[in-house]
Amino acid sequence: MTGLVHRGLAGQVVEMLREQILTGVLPPGSRLNEVEIARDLGISRGPLREAIGQLVSEGLLVHVPNKGAAVFAARPEDVAALFELRAALECAAARMAAHRRRPQEVIRLRKVCERSRKARETGRKLPYDLDLDFHRSLMDAAHSPRIAEQVWLVQQQVIVLRSGLTSRTTHTETSLTDHEAMAGAVAEGDADRAASLMEAHLALVETELLQTMQSEARNEEAPGAQRTGRSAP
Amino acid sequence: MTGLVHRGLAGQVVEMLREQILTGVLPPGSRLNEVEIARDLGISRGPLREAIGQLVSEGLLVHVPNKGAAVFAARPEDVAALFELRAALECAAARMAAHRRRPQEVIRLRKVCERSRKARETGRKLPYDLDLDFHRSLMDAAHSPRIAEQVWLVQQQVIVLRSGLTSRTTHTETSLTDHEAMAGAVAEGDADRAASLMEAHLALVETELLQTMQSEARNEEAPGAQRTGRSAP
DNA sequence: AAACTGATAACTGTCGACAGTTCGACGGGC
DNA sequence: GCCCGTCGAACTGTCGACAGTTATCAGTTT
Q1: Over the stretch A52-79, which tens digit does the pLDDT of each residue have?
Q2: Which domains are assigned to chain A?
Q3: Could B7 and A58 be called an inter-chain contact, meaning their C-beta atoms sit closer than 8 Å?
Q4: Which residue has the higher pLDDT, B121 or A73?
Q5: How many Å lie between the alpha carbon of B220 and the closest alpha carbon of chain A?
Q6: Strand B68-71 relative to strand B31-32: parallel, antiparallel, unpaired?
Q7: CA distances from B115 to A79, B125, B133, B180 (A)
Q8: Per-residue confidence at A225, pLDDT binned at 50, 70, 90?
Q9: Which nucleotides of C are covered by protein (CB under 7 A)?
Q10: How many CB pairs (< 8 A) connect A and B?
């Protein structure tokens, strides 16, 4: 997705750390110890520092001088800014997809919706992977690699954010109907409708995420566990 | 703009190299020799490599394995993808500015347009700095730091692209009236008009840039100078 | 007992040197 | 005369070690 894997050790380490972050092995707020990780991977600190630097520039890690790197832990205001950017990018992509759509890509969109509805009927929750799959299919239909790349970077931050939540957002029936409506708008070539549907969809997802974050924050503060990460001078 | 300058030597080197790239001291296609630059700056190669890595992730440099880094040299198709992203971001920002505008920011927009018109009357060309100033004022009015950050990254690539052209695009009278119309739309709170004006404006700028690139490419191929950068296997 | 101070330890930031690879030049063979 | 194999220089990729800084903790003092 990002480029060639064989651009040195740093490249491999980037992908390894990225997976650890996205899968929640390294939860938000985790501090990264350079010597320890370098020793575990059997490499030097040079390539590791380069890998960390790249992930910092992607927004998956944050870097504080003389204290090292930590997995990005978003606050509510960060979520708002994040979804503003995501809406700008994905709404534009939805418009483009409605204009540039090709039969094959419309079929793929419909197929993802169909698989989602089936999964929704068997289990109660819609798997998050299928949600990601829909949005990525839409990016493909937009035929704008540059925008797709940026959307993927934003999506990654959302994944990290979700990995820090114990109760994952349930992606309700509403999300599924949103997807189906968007697929229809793209199929018909109605760019404006696709964009406004996307905007409403993302606003809903943002609200769900914020509510989950706030409720879990309350549940966490009650027992006496201190706030993770996020230091105030 | 990007963050704290004092996050080590790498941070300072990033800013130094960034200025060299944006001002055209390092023209597009230039290869960066690590040992030479490190020696000139009086530092080691470690921080320098980190700085280069960051600029690669920003898109100002490109990196080829075992061959080092070079200043990004855009092809026409890159320009198209770049302006698709820029349009997505700046149109959304224009909409936001029309919604969230504050009196002080509207005044600033008008002031930039006024200064641009004065400069346009004295000299024939509109200084590029004033164009950048307008777009940055609009980003401020949008009150979306995350989008503003991404717009700035895209703007930087456009600046690099322009630095490789001998005859800078003249930013005609049309661009100035576009700016004034956008300022008016933002002042009135007409988000849709601000967005569509921005889209048209960027389409014009893109066309101007592509024409300049193509004409200069023809003039360069005639004398017998080989194509800079851009290696095909 | 609480607060301040000093030393100690751990970690990041930086450096110089080594290993591996690629590009170019030179010489030999056909 | 042209092509191919080999040698060599230059550069990137990687490593281990040193220096600087910050946090922690014990000891002392009020």
Answers
A1: 999 999 999 999 999 999 999 999 999 9
A2: 9-71 (1.10.10.10), 76-221 (1.20.120.530)
A3: no
A4: A73
A5: 28
A6: antiparallel
A7: 37, 13, 10, 11
A8: very low
A9: 11-17, 20-23
A10: 74
